[in-house]
Design a protein that fits this description.
about 120 residues; mainly alpha; 3 strands; globular
């Protein structure tokens, strides 16, 4: 299955917008292909440290501080589109590189606003 960066962003934004700290995404034998794809992408976010899967049988996720940082960086459609455009210019961009690109764009915006960053 190919990684879908748009789905990663959608899942993070949905989790952030929710009032619940824990989010349940259980798979069952009759899960739809869309549910299976969403669960796979949630596990990718766990692999990267943006989410943590909790619970005895899995399927319960919480966003980590690293996940909140990444979500804050990609919340803006402008930043997200610039991030995707930059990533498209090279092949094999990892999720952590997507985060670095997005944070770099946010830093550049802050510098242009006159905010001193070290």
């Amino acid at each position: 299955m190919k990684r879908d960066d748009e789905l990663l962003r959608k899942l993070l934004l949905e989790m952030e917008e929710s009032e619940d700290a824990l989010h349940i995404y259980h798979l069952v034998l009759a899960s739809s292909p869309e549910d299976a794809k969403a669960y796979y992408h949630l596990r990718l976010l766990v692999d990267e440290g943006f989410l943590e899967e909790t619970g005895k049988s899995g399927g319960v996720f919480r966003m980590t501080n690293k996940g909140h940082d990444f979500t804050a960086a990609i919340r803006s459609d402008t930043v997200w589109n610039k991030t995707k455009d930059a990533a498209a210019q090279v092949s094999g961009v990892s999720i952590s590189i997507l985060k670095d690109i997005a944070l770099g764009i946010v830093r550049d915006q802050l510098v242009k606003m006159g905010v001193p960053l070290a």
